[in-house]
Design goal:
With 169 residues, the chain is α/β, with parallel strands linked by helices. The protein has one domain: Rossmann fold (3-Layer(aba) Sandwich). The chain contains six helices and five strands; from the N terminus they run E-H-E-H-E-H-E-H-E-H-H. The longest helix has 17 residues. It is globular. The N and C termini lie far apart (60 Å). The mean pLDDT is 92. It binds 4'-phosphopantetheine. The site of 4'-phosphopantetheine has 9 residues, from strand 1 and helix 4.
Length: 169
C-alpha cells in the first residue's frame, strides 16, 4: 500500500484558495493572483458572501468581474462561498489559503484571521504574498471612493472593472 503523502509534499501544495470580498477586484488583488498562480497548480479565487455585509457589487457580479480580469491567467477557478472559510477550504480539499499583505496596518487583522482559521483547522496554512510596490496602497474601498468622486482609476483597476464601477456609480 502506498504511504500517505506527508504534509508539505507537492500534493499538499497543489491548490490554494484566495478568499476575499473583492468588491470589486483591483490591481493589487490581480498582482497577488498572478504571483500565486506561479506557486500553485491551481488557484481558487473565492468571493466571501455575507448577508449582513452587502457591498456595491453582488457576489455574482464580483465573480464575473474576477473571471474577466483573470482570463489571461491559466488554472484559475472563481467562485463564491457562504459561511466559514475553513469549511469551504475543506470542501475543496485544499490546505492553503493565500492572502495579500500590504503594510503593517494589515498585519493585526491578518494575524488574527490566520490564527483563528488554524485553530478551527490545524491542517490549514495561511501564506502571505506581497503585491508590488505600485499596488501596495490599493484597497477596494479607496478605489470606490476615488471612482465615486470622478477621479482617474485607470492605474488601479482593469478596464472592465472601471466600466462596471462607472455603471454602478
Ligand atoms: O477581502 P477581505 O474583506 O479582507 O476578506 C476577508 C475574508 C472574506 C477572507 C474573511 O472575512 C473570511 O474568511 N470570511 C469568511 C467567514 C469566516 O470564515 N470568518 C472567520 C475567519 S477569521
Amino acid at each position: 500500500m502506498p504511504e500517505a503523502e506527508p504534509p508539505g509534499s507537492k500534493v499538499f501544495m497543489k491548490v490554494a484558495i484566495y478568499p476575499g470580498s473583492f468588491d470589486p477586484i483591483h490591481n493589487g488583488h490581480l498582482d497577488v493572483i498572478e504571483r500565486a498562480a506561479k506557486l500553485w497548480d491551481k488557484i481558487i479565487v473565492a468571493v466571501a458572501y455575507n448577508e449582513a455585509k452587502t457591498g456595491l457589487f453582488t457576489p455574482d457580479e464580483r465573480v464575473d468581474l474576477i473571471q474577466k480580469a483573470t482570463s489571461h491567467i491559466g488554472s484559475i477557478e472563481v467562485t463564491s462561498f457562504e459561511g466559514l472559510l475553513v469549511d469551504f477550504v475543506e470542501e475543496k480539499k485544499a490546505h492553503v489559503v493565500v492572502r495579500g499583505l500590504r503594510a503593517i496596518s494589515d498585519f493585526e487583522y491578518e494575524f488574527q484571521m490566520a490564527l483563528m482559521n488554524r485553530s478551527l483547522d490545524e491542517d490549514l496554512e495561511t501564506v502571505f504574498l506581497m503585491p508590488s510596490q505600485e499596488n501596495i496602497y490599493l484597497s477596494s474601498r479607496i478605489v470606490k471612493e476615488v471612482a465615486r468622486l470622478d477621479g482617474d482609476i485607470d492605474k488601479f483597476v482593469p478596464p472592465m472593472v472601471k466600466a462596471a464601477l462607472a455603471e454602478k456609480l
